[in-house]
Amino acid sequence: MNKDAAGLSAMLATMGALHFAAPKPFDSIVPRSLPGSPRTWTYLSGAAELAVAAAVAHPRTRRAGALAAAGLFAAVFPANVKMAMDWRHASPAKRAVAYGRLPMQIPLILWARRVFSD
To answer: What are φ and ψ of residue 86, in 5° steps?
Structure first.
């Protein structure tokens, strides 16, 4: 497995596992407009990240996994927007984290695209 695919898979697996090990921070950024419990969405997104990590890790499913990763990175953007809005009056450090997450989706999507193209 090349370094891009290995790194992407590891990052997705780590984040997916964190959704189950420490769900509260993820619950807090689930957009209120989504139906049901925030915890359900936290677990669903964590499971999706773990599934995509496994797909990226396996050579036969790597391209599909990379495409799914790009879609996942785009799909979680509303949660990052919610976090930025919720933290707009927080400390400068928290605001920096929240606002810094917004443009990070672009390099993540480009990373998935590189894995798709390899």
So the answer is: -65, -35
**Beta carbons of 118 and 4 less than 8 angstroms apart:** yes
Distances (CA, A) of 54 to 2, 13, 39, 69: 15, 8, 23, 11
- Structure tokens that stand for 37 in this block: 């419990």
Confidence of residue 1 (pLDDT cuts 50, 70, 90): confident
Q: pLDDT tens-digit profile of 9-45?
A: 999 999 999 999 999 999 999 999 999 999 999 999 9
The C-alpha angle 54, 21, 86, rounded to 5 degrees, equals 100
- Classify 115 in phi/psi space as left (phi over 0), alpha (psi -120 to 50) or beta: alpha
